[in-house]
Amino acid sequence: MILLQATQQTMLRTSSGVPGRNINYLSDNQNKQALNSLLTSYSLYSVIDFPTRIHNNSNTMIDNIFINTLKNENYSVYSLINGLSDHDAQVLSLSDIIVPDDRNELYSCREISTHLLNEFQTSLSYEAWENVFSDNDTNTTFNNFLNTFIRTFNASFPKKRTKLRQNSKAWLTTGIKTSCNNKRKLYLLYRESNDPNLKIYYKNYCKILSKVITVFSSL
Questions:
Q1: What distance in Å separates the CA atoms of residue 22 and residue 35, rounded to the nearest whole number?
Q2: Is the C-alpha dihedral spanning 206, 208, 212, 215 positive or negative?
Q3: SS3 call for 1
Q4: Distance separating alpha carbons of residues 71 and 105, to the nearest angstrom
Q5: CA 100 from chain center: how many Å?
Q6: How many CB atoms lie within 10 A of CB 23?
Q7: What percentage of the chain's residues is helix, strand, coil (to nearest 5)?
Q8: What's the average model confidence in pLDDT over 192-202?
Q9: Residue 208 backbone phi and psi in degrees, to 5
Q10: Which phi and psi (to 5°) does residue 214 adopt?
């Protein structure tokens, strides 16, 4: 609801007459004041105070984080250059928050495979369904069908208790990490430079790295 109201108000206030949703928080403008007024009514305040998009001589702050600073007084926020676009990431760190450790918690799951699905269909075909066709009451017929279906389903796909699998990302080798760091360094050079050759080199480097990650992550 908050985002919907913010979007509707922002679309009504544009300097060019064309609806837009990007609000640069580095400058005072009517859209910024309207959005702040709306979010303040929900006790949400902007915590970003640095440019989030830097390209050549252009600095803007159109990426933002809004939190209830009255309930979260101990926080820190900083920019993270991800090398994925000219928009830097924002990292928000909240203190005094207890995050439950669910690594040893058991979860219920069902194993569903082609073999078990075939067995499930076979079990349904063995049912006589007499209690479904012998009654004229629609509700009773449906309940009888549903009970038989659920009983067969539970028998074919019993619940199992298991621990949550941890994603180890074994494919993320030291070489890939080093290449990702080099990509970020190249990006910093690329966005501050007007050299077309550097732009071509950076894009080719990204393509090669992307192919390598795709191959290794599929192993």
A1: 11
A2: positive
A3: coil
A4: 29
A5: 20
A6: 21
A7: 45, 15, 40
A8: 86
A9: -65, -45
A10: -60, -45
